[in-house]
Amino acid sequence: FVNSVAWLRLGDVYRAYCLGVISKLGFSWGIGTLVAERFLDMIIVFAMILASVMMLSSGVKNQALDFLVIFAFIMTAILTVFVLLLAIAGKRLVSRLPILVRSHYSQFKIGVLNSFKNIFMVTFLGLAAWVMEITRLFFVTTSLNVDMSIYLIILATMSNAVLSTFPTPGGIGIVEPGLTGIFIISVSSSDAASITLLDRSITYLSVLIFGGVTFLLYQAWFQKKRKIMSTHDVG
Predict the structure, then answer these.
(1) Spatial separation of the C-alpha atoms in residues 235 and 232, rounded to whole Å
(2) For 16-20, 97-101, 205-209, which range has the lowest pLDDT when averaged over its residues?
(3) Radius of gyration of the chain from Cα atoms?
(4) In this structure, are residues 109 and 32 in contact, taking their beta carbons and an 8 Å threshold?
(5) Angle CA(121)–CA(123)–CA(127) in degrees, nearest 5?
(6) How far apart are CA 53 and CA 72, in angstroms?
(7) What is the DSSP letter of 202?
(8) Would you call 218 exposed, middle or buried from its count of C-beta atoms within 10 A (0-12, 13-18, 19+)?
(9) Between the CA of residue 18 and those of 127, 140, 165, 210, what are the distances in Å?
(10) Distance between CA atoms of 224 and 191, rounded to whole angstroms?
(11) In angstroms, rounded to a whole number, what is the distance separating the alpha carbons of residues 45 and 76?
């Protein structure tokens, strides 16, 4: 919900902060778990995008497809290199950091690397979530009586994930033209626009409504939780 109303994907930062407070492991650790999640997520997304593009007709030429594959590859490559460097970096790097930064770096590193201990379960859950996303878009196209290849549906779903990483609230203004451009590969422009508008009304507007209510309820619980934790710490 916060990502849908705030710029620069501040919802991810907010989630890391809440997780750090509740776990008592700190904000740096929370950010580390977020990086690990994004790393695993992008590997799945890039693999599915690449597979979908390969399964589509080789004669298809579309600038949106080219941009999507390149952008997904760059994001995956950057995260992969970053995680590998983090895993390789030893005590020598820590000793060169300012004293005030060392503890935050250590907690951040622990948050990233320890997140991979349950990598098979996390990967399975990630795949299950993407299957649900793909199923949603399939039902959207079916409800509009539009015949679309399952590979294009998978590609569009993954595209939604990549395009929504842009720093606008919920990827608004970026996701819509991107999805429409991909749908045009196999359907008319009017059908492509209809699918995009209906799908975004589910993925964006529903998050604003249900997410807003959940956010308010969570804020009340979170503040109460913080007060209880502060009381215990003082005690």
Answers:
(1) 5
(2) 97-101
(3) 20
(4) yes
(5) 115
(6) 12
(7) I
(8) middle
(9) 25, 34, 21, 20
(10) 48
(11) 9
d(CA 118, CA 123): 9
What are the pLDDT digits (tens) for 172-229?
Answer: 999 999 899 899 988 999 999 999 999 999 989 899 999 999 999 998 888 887 777 7
CB 187 within 8 A of CB 195: yes
Hunting for tokens 């902060």 — which residue is that? 17
**Cα–chain-centroid distance for residue 82?**
17
Backbone angles phi, psi at 34, to 5 degrees: -65, -45
Q: Spell out the alpha helix ranges (H) of the chain.
A: 2-5, 10-23, 27-55, 63-88, 91-96, 99-114, 119-143, 150-163, 175-183, 189-200, 206-234
Q: In this structure, what token pair is assigned to residue 231?
A: 């009381």
Q: Can you state the angle between helices 27-55 and 99-114, rounded to 10 degrees?
A: 40
Look up residue 219 and give its amino acid.
Q
Residue whose C-alpha is closest to residue 2's, from 158, 225, 218:
218
